[in-house]
Amino acid sequence: MKKKVAVGLSGGVDSSVAAWLLKEQGYEVEGIFMINWHDSRGLLKGECPFDEDVTFAEMVARKLKIRLRATDLSTEYRARVVDYMFSEYALGRTPNPDVLCNREIKFDSFVSEALRHGADYVATGHYCRTEETETVAGRMHRLLAGTDRNKDQSYFLCQVSQRQLDNVLFPVGHLTKPEVRRMAVDLGLATADRKDSQGICFVGKVDLPVFLQQKLEARKGRIINVPGEHLFRMWADGLPDGGTASEELALMAAQHEIGPGDGVTAGVHNGAHFYTVGQRKGLNLGGYREPLFVIRTDTINNLVYTGEGQMHGGLYRKGLFIMAKEVHWIRPDLVIAAGESRDYEVRIRYRQPLQRARLFARDEGYYIIFDRQQRGITPGQFAAWYDGEELLGSGVIHQ
Predict the structure, then answer these.
(1) Do 267 and 190 belong to one domain?
(2) In angstroms, rounded to a whole number, what is the distance separating the alpha carbons of residues 266 and 268?
């Protein structure tokens, strides 16, 4: 009897080819289209949450001769992803909805829905891979980067658990994006030339301030421009000793201190919670030799701090801190105990090249100290650590 696989058919080329590959491998394949968002407020002109996507998913299902059904997970999505986004922005942090969507919806609510309807496995079009390994703690799933390093999407799965990987397949993880495109063209799939989706997962491209004003009100405040020499901390390249004291680690991971006399008022904004570290667009300030970038936001006092130029000292830090309750290990057998340290490669955003770093486990949480100072470390985003091609764990950047 054939094993049944439910494919998250999104209307994109990756999930379309994934469905075809599974059918070729002899599985009984069913497509499921997720409807996770209905509200069009804040969407950029011409963008639609799902109308066009479902049309393409239907065309692919007909071409592949597989059943397609829709499931509405919008209630869960609003409660577990969008409401979290609003609360994080209100605190002056910048969440990653794609990571949350995978943890809370695609590999939780969606998987439960598929298994409840008789699926043996669930598949997505993510560019990543899994394999099993035997450990002293028993069999474990290894979550590996996609073969196509330009398209590797393992970072977006940095919060999934061993349980969530139990019944999941990634059919295109061993392929490159050009190979997937060529397959789609050869098969005559309607999605062959569709552009990759952008913007917030399942919502689309949005005017972020307008989108956030569903819950967060606009409030005028000051933009304060800070000279770079006030904030630059000179740290030598290289990793600190494994026994470095917590106080020194905290200093390396701390945000730059900005005093009341460190800057001058440069303009007015409509709400500090609408801005994020490293942001350039939306400041609407001219008259400077180099562009201004956001280096800090203060949502309590409704202030936005900026610095001039790509190399401004306020954009760079040696490390970051993750609170103990926010540390997540995909491989629980490899957890670093308090007082220990270990070298890994780390990324703090999607597509960032992996950076050499040392993780220091302390009772209060993890300090990640990089070999070289990093630009735009952003509270609320996820830092993910790798051992070679295996993604081991991640955590929410506290500061």
Answers:
(1) no
(2) 7
The count of other CB atoms within 10 Å of the CB of residue 165 is: 19
268 and 148 in one domain?
no
Is the same domain home to 180 and 246? Answer: no
Does 337 lie in the same domain as 282?
Answer: yes
Q: Does residue 101 have an active-site annotation?
A: yes
* Residues 124/111, Cβ–Cβ less than 8 Å: no
Mean pLDDT over 198-210 rounds to: 56
CA 63 to chain centre: 32
Distance CA 11, CA 194 (A): 9
Q: Which of 210, 234, 265 is the last residue of a domain?
A: 210
Strand partners, 357: 344, 370
The residue from 48, 128, 158, 201 that is catalytic is 201
Token duo for residue 258: 């900005």
**Structural domains in the chain (count):** 2
Average pLDDT over the chain, rounded to an integer: 90
Kindly give, in sequence order, each residue whose CB lies less than 8 Å from that of residue 123, ignoring residues fewer than 6 positions away. Answer: 5, 6, 7, 8, 18, 19, 22, 168, 169, 170, 171
The alpha-helical segments, DSSP class H, found in 94-155 are: 97-101, 110-116
Same domain, 200 and 231: no
Q: Tell me: the pLDDT tens digits for 331-353?
A: 999 999 999 999 999 999 999 99
Share of the chain above pLDDT 70, in %: 92
pLDDT over 50 (residue 44)? no
Do the beta carbons of residue 293 and residue 313 sit within 8 Å? Answer: no
**Rounded-to-integer distance, Cα 151 and Cα 127, Å:** 6
- Tell me, yes or no, whether 87 and 58 share the same domain: yes
User: Which of 91-105, 220-234, 235-249 has the lowest average pLDDT?
Assistant: 220-234
CATH number at residue 191: 3.40.50.620
Give the domain extent around 349: 217-396
Cα separation, 245 vs 267, in Å, equals: 41
Only one residue has tokens 């952008």, namely 198
Highest mean pLDDT among 30-39, 208-217, 341-350: 341-350
Domain end, chosen from 210, 231, 254, is at 210
The pLDDT of residue 206: 53
Burial status of residue 75 (CB atoms within 10 A of its CB: 0-12, 13-18, 19 or more): exposed
DSSP 8-state code for residue 149? T
- Closest to 38 (Cα-Cα) out of 28, 46, 27, 49: 49
**In terms of domains, do 190 and 144 share one?**
yes
Looking at residue 346, which CATH number applies to its domain?
Answer: 2.40.30.10
